[in-house]
Amino acid sequence: MGPTAAHTALDAESREQFRALATAELPRLYAIARRLVGDDAEDAVQDCLLKAFRAFGRLDARDAAPAWFVTILVNCCRDRGRAKVRHPDEVELEEVERFSLFRTIADEDPFPYSDTLHLDFLERFGAEDLHAVLAGLPDIYRVPLVLVHMYGFPTRDVAAVVDAPRGTVLARLHRGRKLLEKRLWEYARDNGLLKEGTR
Fold it and tell me: Minimal CB count within 10 Å: which of 8, 52, 61, 124?
């Protein structure tokens, strides 16, 4: 069904409801898409709104619309990611599980730190640095991290969004946090963000 056919399939009241819901969700959808696909965010949100409009007649509960929009958006972002990445990033999970950012900073930095040494480390990152590290994570870890830790989604809702059991989401969150820490350290080392004298 093309957009024109979908447009005529919705009555005027439904079209107005869609417009109101989409307008309310738009800032959050764009912000999430920026975290998931970076510069492709506008295109991903447009894809999402088009698909949502076409399927709006099948949405039974209007109060479920926020999670419904996000589910569609995540799938649109995944489609864009799959189109760009032919060889998914491989992750050595055992190595990731062993990594500790706190211990690494303490071991590698010769200067005495306070109890907030990890915060001292993170203060060296700008918004673009953090965005670059986050964008480098595989989708299975990036999506739960973004939705739970940046936008406050309950893990049960994320389980519905990614179509996986809640236990799987919790495991991905744990591994995603560990992987994020490891990638932050590697990024800081490779981009001159460590203190002078750090080994």
Answer: 61
